[in-house]
Amino acid sequence: MKTLSLRGALMASVLLAGSVVSAQEIADTIYSGGPILTIDDDQPNAEAVAVKDGRILAVGALDAIEQHRGEATENFDLNGRAMLPGFIDSHGHVVLGGLQALSANLLSPPDGDVTDIASLQDVLRKWAKDNKKAVESANMIVGFGYDNAQLAELRHPTREELDAVSTDVPIIIVHQSSHIGVANSKALELAGIDASTPDPEGGVIRREADGTPNGVLEEYAFINTIVPMLGQLGEDGLATFARAGSQLWASYGFTTAQDGRSTKGIVEALRSIDAKGELPIDVVAYPDAFEERDFIGDNVSLAYSGNVRVGGCKVTIDGSPQGFTALRDRPYYAPVGDYPAGYAGYSSATMDQVQKAVNWCYENGIQVIAHANGEGASDMLIAAIGAAKEKYGDPGNRPVLLHGQFMREDQIESYQKQGVFLSLFPMHTFFWGDWHREHTVGPVNADNISPTGWARDRGMMFATHHDAPVALPDSMRLLSATVTRRTRSGDILGPRQRVDVMTALKAMTIWPAWQHFEEADKGTITTGKIADFVLLSQDPTAVDPETLSDLQVLTTIKDGAVVFDAAKDTRKAHAGSAPFSASPSQAEYFLHAMYDGLRGNREGATHVDR
To answer: What span, in angstroms and rounded, lies between the C-alpha atoms of 433 and 392?
Structure first.
């Protein structure tokens, strides 16, 4: 069992006896030959690093590190590559990341080819043709990653437009936010959704004038449809997702991943593949506090069992800012769609539900990570944490705000006073910055989405995340967006909110390590810490910041062992292709499970109960 209380455990083994190096000081591997950025303020740079038994034995000048070389010591030549601590995923969904490998890729450029509804239809048709045997066997088509903000029509596809692909085969496509989906007529029929179906609490079934569903399902209308489908995957299916997702994260330099809003089944699948030696990186899971409290209470731990641990609970308060389902404190600026005057979004949970979940976490001393995008959602979270602290005190559980896209500056101050750690989403500035400026919050407030500058003005730590599979877990795109805040159109969205490269790197390493209670073991290249590294094509502090997104992750090292090598691994994502290609049997299994789950909606499958 790997624990988080090993600070200094190796310090006694690195003492010199005169000029003689003792046996326990001989390194397994010495890394040198390129710039080494330790992210450790006490020793920011080094010439070499010695590693023994998966831990860092020594860091410093090459001459000093050479004292740890023995006959069996391997020399790892960086060949000019930049070495940094392994990246730590502040928020993502590593298992659902496997969905990108098993479904049609509906992402827009630069990660896919979908630019309008016609091209979306073409991708679905091509994917169905390429996976003909699986589609015919399972009678199901699934696509992931479309974004109405990037479609020429600036709207969601409808059931009729999916019917143009097939009226006989059920089709489900998932919005890039994962908070919205679209079903064709056959899928709606199988799910038992028709004109008489009421909107669920915290969700919307979009309709035509006569009340007929138009195919678009928001928030819990979609969640209550997709969760039973995923539930039918079973352990083998979830294990397939987990393998593909963890390999994808590793290919972008992440040595620790998060699985936010996990289920018991997802955690068990992670444990299963880990027991087989098939999980290349660490994963911290946060099951849903509305659904999995008993499981969380029985399993939460600061100690890893293998490469998996349950870190706390997830609370989801609202939805997607780019999808206009985040709860604001004012109307949306110019929403695209059929919205009433003064529309400000909505919460996906009631204040009572949020308060009870947060109270439970505080009462039991469990970390809570909370999805709150709009100002209204942050108001709910701030109130809930304040009430919980007043009732139970501060258990030192390091609560985390996730996203906070539309925060007011006073809310930053409230979070600081309450000791809430900010996990922000500056990749929005690239993917949806233009959309936010023109439609969600307007040109003035758009400058302050993902307000990393406000956090640093107050001396606050923060972390940055990709929220994959909302976007690919592209670490260099994340770094670039945090530093430059360039939108797709080339605009700089909020110059005041930009930070320097080193600050952005800390937000991907040592600060999310602190967020996860792992700062003693991860986040910097420091003697005694775990040997988790990423090798980049160039030193990110030595290039033009405008070129950061062009840097490449070449090698990922976990516990001193290479888990990704770009020179040998051809599965890395390319525009227009899935991140990892699934085998025909995997695709067939996946589609069968999704079909059975969709049919289960109509036949009384259990919906999400908060």
So the answer is: 39
